[in-house]
Amino acid sequence: MTIIIKVDSENPSIEKIRRAAEIIRKGGTVAFPTETVYGLGADALNPEAVRKIYEAKERPPTNPLIIHIAEKKEVYRLAEEIPEKAFELMDRFWPGPLTLVLRASEIVPKITTAGLETTAIRMPSHRVALALIRESSRPIAAPSANLAGRPSPTTAEHVIEDLYGRIDAILDGGPTPVGVESTVLDMTTEPPRILRPGGVPREDLEEVLGRVEVKQTYRRYKLRMEVILVEGEPKSVIRKVRELAGLYLSRGRRVGILTIDEHKPMYETYRTMHRCEVKSLGSRKDPAVIARNLFGLLREFEGMGVDLVLAEGFKVEGLGLTIMNRLRRASGLNIVKA
Known about the structure:
This protein is of the alpha/beta class. The protein contains twelve helices and 17 strands. Strand 10 (183-186) and strand 11 (193-196) form a beta hairpin. It is globular, with a radius of gyration of 20 Å. The chain starts with a strand and ends with a strand. The mean pLDDT is 97.
């Protein structure tokens, strides 16, 4: 059994938080909301507890975990050789969706770092996450609370879908406000390197650091449907999506279209005449909303039984870099240029 504990995201009950914190202190696993996505937490300094994270998620042991802290001073305990610029980043972006990769101190178990000499640390801003860390009196290792390879969970329902019966408890604090994972920034290289685009855009980091490199990986999400990403100038993208939708519908495929508010009316005939599922991520004027809705809509398409999603691309700037990273992963780099 997995215990589900509902909490108010703005004013979490201390009794409920302490119940979950006791599970962490005893070496158990608790899924909890952060401002980015739900994390699957365990005591970061307890190797046996950390092993339960890998087992529950079916996560490869070569994939390191992010350590979540509630006080900046904890960095001194967990990391060594901290660059001066790292402190500037902490002052500006913590608490928030930025993970810093630093040289690991000796107290961090190798299972938490996946055998690396570095460790990834962040201070979340979500009140439930901060309360859990403080009441646990432990730094908490917490990757996303999903089966390995699945889209990250932005609601407790997503966690239940993937991990119910595999973990000890879920703190249900409602939907997460950012909806995509934190930006992971390697501060052990010169210039610093983004290993995963996320909630803090590259441009914001460059205001502090100057030049920042980007090293992206595109491990494909394990989805129960095919995703085709259509990239190009907006009018050409709409035309290509309409063309592909007609083609695949004629072949008997159940097609979904992932678009934005401004383009959704262009697909109305496909929705009404061909029973094509058309979903909007939000307005192009608000990329934060688009990022927040992405994982949830991918899972929603799965629940509808869609077997092919045609997704519109975005400009690779600001949060667009993060959005496109996730869409390219969803498609497995199955990209059509319009």
